[in-house]
Amino acid sequence: MPVYQMQRLLLSSHSKDRRIYSESLHQRSLAMSSSSSSSSSAAQTDAETLRLKRINSSKLYLHVIPSKVPIIYSSYYDISFLGIEKLHPFDSSKWGRICRFLISEGYLDKNSIVEPLEATTDDLLVVHTEAYLNSLKNSVNVAMITEVPPIAILPNCLVQTKVLYPLRRQVGGTILAAKLAKDRGWAFNVGGGFHHCCSGRGGGFCAFADISLCIHFAFVRLNISRVMIVDLDAHQGNGHEMDFADDGRVYILDMYNHEIYPFDMTARSYIKQKVEVAVSLWLLTNEVSLLLARSLADLIFPYKNRLGLQLMST
């Protein structure tokens, strides 16, 4: 056989081998991609199944007897330990003072108050990552979240019982409040409202995402389909906003002073109705009422016929 023909055959053979090898790599890549996608989808399904199991097996939705009023509080809410409550502008004993005032003025009978359970680790894992909850076993991390530096040098067992346990009780109260609100038409948790905490991050004295937890429980256990968060704290909320980013079921109205903490522009972009102010919030009562009415109309309108509501336009 002439040399040039042999060279042509060899080149043809090499080209064919390269093509087969390339096709094999492509098929292997597609198979790996498909396998990765399937694994990811399966992992998401498993995670959602576990979330539902945790919600449905939770003990936080207590049966509350009719003689109780839907006001939720526990003496365990208050944080008072070695004076650390005085080292932060956040008043960590205000919850007890509120209830004592209501009782002393005759507005509330202490025996009619509903006392919640503590949120367990399984309850918290409905929203929080294991990594985040494990980070709270380090007192330094808790000190940064609460913004109380001396906590960093305390044994974590003390931090758990004196700081985090009261907050977990308040989480239980917030979650229970949704059930009572549906049962009774209204409910009030004296504590909670930790709007700076999301699934994997805490801050601003907020160690647990009770708002996000409350909503996820309500979606599953109460068959709630849409929720509106009205956040009137002076600080912008940046926890629930991250947890429900682009979630059409949750409408957020947040009124805050944009010149103070937390300056979280990413979270801010997820607010459906934001009101940025730099003056005392009490001066804006009329504006709040107007915005709230409009936002409620947007939230309820798709369900107006089913709810039998008549909405007044302003």
From TrEMBL:
InterPro entries: HDAC_classIV, HDACs, His_deacetylse_dom, His_deacetylse_dom_sf, Ureohydrolase_dom_sf. GO terms for biological process: epigenetic regulation of gene expression. Keywords: Chromatin regulator, Hydrolase, Repressor. GO terms for molecular function: histone deacetylase activity; hydrolase activity. Transmembrane segments: none annotated. The keyword Secreted does not apply. This is Histone deacetylase 2-like isoform X2. It comes from Durio zibethinus.
